Write the structure tokens for this entry.
Amino acid sequence: MSISTPELAVAINAARSAGELIMRFFRDGCDFRSKNDDPQATFNLVTDADLKAEYLIADIIRRSYPAHAVLGEELHPGNLRADHLWIVDPIDGTNNFAHQIAHFAVSIAYYRAGKAECGVIYNPAREEWYVTARGQGAWFNECRVQVAKTTRLEEVLVGLGFYYDRGAMMEATLAAIRDLLRRNIHGTRRMGTASLDLAYVGTGQFGAYFEYELSPWDFAAGRLFVEEAGGLVTTCAGTPLPLAKTGVLASNGPLHPAVLEVVRGHLPAGW
Ligand code: LIP
């Protein structure tokens, strides 16, 4: 790898170890269950692999940085205002994983004083590493990458995601898809893994990506990857991205205004 920081080395080691554990579950098949208490929203899934992987990642981080805070999707409440904060999604794309679709990732990011310093997004099913560090660029499997160069929506794919609601958020997303398709984009892609969607903006495979509601562990590493690849990441309202549950809009930069006009235009009321 042509970039390195002490924290990035720990993140890569933790991602590799978690990936080995996750792939054992993936090959053997893994029971899943709904996270939601709401019987109507049974599609927010979790597996034993998520839980064991998050324990393993946190343990590896704490062996090097015992005083640092860890925020993890499944088990670690973490303090978003901690000076040294690790943000972990042990399996981003759990629904894909649970249904034996090999498109999921371990996402680990390190933040210092509220700023992203480094991150790794690792798809163990395909041995794909998306690695970044502040000021050191965005790298895909040892190759430095950059966002798409085009200024025209008619030349790109746009990634997107659906939050777990089946109400206003879903309707807003469907309306935004319709308007983007009417602008003659090459197509939309709902791949089911936000961190990899953001990585695809960084590599130029997507011109843009949006989702009206994500958690910090979904985007903590991917936002830095996009920015280090020369792109732009904001909320779906076009404001600076907070480290909180929020909508996310990422692009190569030149396409941001056009995609923002569509996405912001359909923002659910009150979001
Ligand atoms: C998922 C994201 C996806 C989003 C899902 C879910 P998880 O993360 O990667 O983009 O649409 O609602 O948030 O829950 O699989 O870690």
Remarks:
- Helices lie at 6-28, 48-64, 94-98, 168-182, 194-203, 216-228, 256-265.
- The chain has two domains: 6-145, 153-265.
